[in-house]
């Protein structure tokens, strides 16, 4: 997802496969929790000029375009990963300590992240469960 040149990354994946090979991916979707997180981070730490959002890998139509005729079949299914933490503050502390892009922009985006976490929380006030949608993708390539 974080390759700067999506077309080249797709081409390289296809290049290393034998005919009839299979590519498997789990890509965050642009409208899911992580896609929203990318948008918030982007307000404070914009990506370099010309870089396509990594969340595009979570769009089935975009993947069909990237892999083109080499993909005999693209099967994509939306799924959810539940982030489980004690609270929004706990999630924020873990991501502050461990997630690179948040380090640089943390001071400016803290309140927006807490708002997103609390709005997305499905567990109530005693804990944090945030469903984060991703697109599970299996691409079967042509056999010849």
What this model shows, in words?
- The radius of gyration is 17 Å and the shape is elongated.
- The chain contains 5 helices and 3 strands.
- The two termini are 27 Å apart.
- It is α+β, with helices and mostly antiparallel strands and 144 residues long.
- It has a 3-stranded antiparallel β-sheet.
- The model has no long low-confidence stretch (mean pLDDT 89).
Question: Which structural traits does this protein have?
Answer:
144 residues, alpha+beta, 5 helices, 3 strands, elongated
Which runs of at least 5 residues are low in confidence (pLDDT < 50)?
Answer: none
Give the integer mean of the pLDDT values: 89
Strand content: 25-35%
- Indicate the radius of gyration in whole angstroms: 17 Å
Q: Topology of this protein?
A:
Blueprint lengths: L5 H10 L6 E7 L4 H12 L15 H8 L3 E15 L2 H11 L1 H21 L7 E14 L3
Antiparallel strand pairs: 1-3, 2-3
Helix pairs in contact: 2-5, 4-5
In brief, what are we looking at here?
By secondary structure, this protein is an alpha+beta fold. Helices cover 43% and strands 25% of the residues.
């Amino acid at each position: 997802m974080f390759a700067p040149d999506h077309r080249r990354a797709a081409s390289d994946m296809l290049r290393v496969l034998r005919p009839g090979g299979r590519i498997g991916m789990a890509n965050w979707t642009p409208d899911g929790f992580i896609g929203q997180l990318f948008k918030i981070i982007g307000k404070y730490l914009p990506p370099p000029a010309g870089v396509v959002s990594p969340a595009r890998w979570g769009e089935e139509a975009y993947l069909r375009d990237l892999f083109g005729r080499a993909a005999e079949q693209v099967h994509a299914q939306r799924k959810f990963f539940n982030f489980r933490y004690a609270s929004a503050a706990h999630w924020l502390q873990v991501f502050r300590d461990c997630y690179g892009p948040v380090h640089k922009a943390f001071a400016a985006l803290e309140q927006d992240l807490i708002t997103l976490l609390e709005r997305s929380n499905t567990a109530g006030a005693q804990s944090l469960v945030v469903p984060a949608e991703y697109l599970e993708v299996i691409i079967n390539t042509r056999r010849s």
